[in-house]
Design a protein that fits this description.
This protein has helices at residues 19-23, 28-37, 40-43, 47-50, 141-145, 174-178, 191-197, 224-228, 280-283, 394-401; strands spanning 74-75, 86-89, 107-109, 122-127, 137-140, 150-157, 181-190, 207-212, 219-223, 233-238, 241-242, 252-254, 267-273, 288-289, 295-296, 305-310, 321-330, 336-342, 350-351, 353-354, 364-372, 377-385, 414-417, 423-426. By secondary structure, it is of the alpha+beta class. Bound molecules: ligand MTE.
Length: 429
């Protein structure tokens, strides 16, 4: 009998029985064997078949099964000095499809989070100079929520995602290596519409500054072309309900394809101006140190990237045989068009199945069949986007970027499977 493992719910390295094999019919013989041996799970009547279940609305807001309790956001011990200015990573290894459950959406705060009272929240739109707009305005949440809305699925990735791996392997699991990444359906109002409402002079104003209401003075410059395209919106909804407090309730900016820092949370002010502001979070932080010692600024688009989420670091293959290898791919420049997967560290590649519909600047789920023969293997995925850009190897990326950066590491991830079935994080140039 063939079984597959992934990092599961009941212990850090617990194992998932491979139910799809049953669907494929391959389970028939082993199941009979078990029954003959007297498997109580088949022969007996468990309590849930012989007693009255829980009433409706026992949990007015539904919760995951207690057997899934280990699938949670996790903070990396020692990453930052205080938890108020830190990261909680999404457990990518245990998720399916492309939508991140709201309770597992990663968190990145510079100065902690608050549950902001929506009746007291305001969004102000003003200009850097008189004449940049006709009327500066202040909107309440009620004002915003009666305007024409859009709902769109987009990924958000912190620019620092995979940032610990620039020099060498640093973390054991995909949760820590790639978990500053989530994907949700966001609902809100295009920023262009609000700027038009204020009578912004789009000829003079080629930039906007977004400011958050938390204590971190989070401010980011966004080029006006992005706003004019209609893609940037002020969002109050996430996955069909209001934003979660940790993710900016009641209002955040959604800047599709752009690194997470520009998705300003608890959005309280938009200023229109004629040049970038060079604020602390774009002139000093969120910059890329290049090998020649220069700093690169305003590199905000997240380039094409992918990662195999199962099997991945910290998991264990229980047996040889068939496995569905699965992962996610994304590009800040549009749609993912292809994902190649290698089982021998990049010598041979095969094309993975992409789950549709493929959406622009959203995660794309890929799957590929694999029969493990019990020998050591190195699993990799390499994504290509609609611009033709191909996700680079560590060798290619380091040749241009060196090893001293923090942000925008989109190198090909390698997972090594040892003869014992243990999966670990390795780097292949
Ligand atoms: N907005 C405010 N006001 N304060 C913050 O600390 N963090 C930024 C961005 N917006 C931040 C913010 C960073 S660095 C990222 S990666 C994303 O929010 C994280 O969004 P999330 O916490 O919803 O995942």
């Amino acid at each position: 009998m063939k079984e597959v493992a992934r990092q599961g719910a009941s212990s850090r390295r617990s194992f998932l029985r491979n139910s799809f094999i049953a669907a494929a019919g391959a389970m028939a013989a082993p199941m009979l064997t078990r029954a003959a041996e007297g498997d109580p799970n088949i022969l007996g009547n468990p309590p849930w078949t012989t007693s009255l279940g829980m009433p409706v609305a026992a949990n007015p807001y539904g919760l995951p099964s207690k057997y899934e309790r280990n699938l949670v956001r996790r903070e990396s011990p020692g990453l930052t000095r205080v938890s108020g200015s830190s990261v909680a990573f999404t457990p990518l290894q245990g998720l399916f499809g492309i939508i991140t459950p709201s309770g597992l959406h990663f968190e990145r705060h510079h100065q902690g989070w608050h549950d902001v009272d929506p009746s007291k929240h305001r969004l102000m739109i003003n200009g850097s100079e008189p004449g940049f707009l006709k009327t500066a305005k202040v909107y309440t949440m009620d004002d915003i929520m009666r305007l024409p809305s859009v709902s769109r699925i987009h990924f958000i990735e912190c620019g620092a995602n995979t940032g610990m791996e620039w020099g060498n392997v640093a973390v054991p699991t995909v949760q820590y290596s790639h978990g500053m990444l989530s994907c949700s359906e966001f609902t809100g109002v295009p920023l262009r519409l609000l700027l038009e409402d204020c009578g912004v002079d789009f000829r003079k104003c080629r930039y906007v500054l977004a400011e958050g209401a938390d204590g971190s003075s989070m401010t980011r410059t966004i080029p006006m072309e992005m706003v004019e395209s209609g893609e940037v919106f002020v969002a109050y909804g996430m996955n069909g309900e209001m934003l979660r407090p940790e993710n900016g309730y009641p209002l955040r900016l959604v800047v599709p394809g752009v690194q997470g820092v520009s998705w300003v949370k608890w959005l309280r002010r938009i200023e229109v101006g004629d040049k970038p502001w060079a604020t602390k979070d774009e002139a000093v932080h969120y910059i890329d140190l290049l090998p020649d010692g220069q700093h690169r600024q305003y590199t905000s688009v997240q380039e094409c990237k992918s990662v195999i989420t199962s099997p991945s670091g910290g998991q264990m293959l229980l047996d040889t045989g068939f496995y569905n290898v699965t992962g996610i791919a994304w590009s800040g420049r549009g749609k993912v068009t292809r994902v190649d997967v290698s089982f021998d560290g990049g010598v041979n590649w095969q094309v993975a199945r992409l789950e549709g519909p493929i959406q622009s600047k959203a995660l794309t789920r890929f799957n590929v069949n694999w029969v493990w023969d019990g020998k050591p293997a190195i699993l990799q995925s390499r994504a290509v986007d609609e611009t033709g850009y191909v996700q680079p190897s560590y060798g290619q990326l380091r040749a241009v970027r060196g090893t001293k950066s923090i942000y925008h590491n989109n190198a090909i991830q390698s997972w090594k499977v040892s003869e014992t079935g243990e999966v670990s994080n390795v780097q292949v140039l």
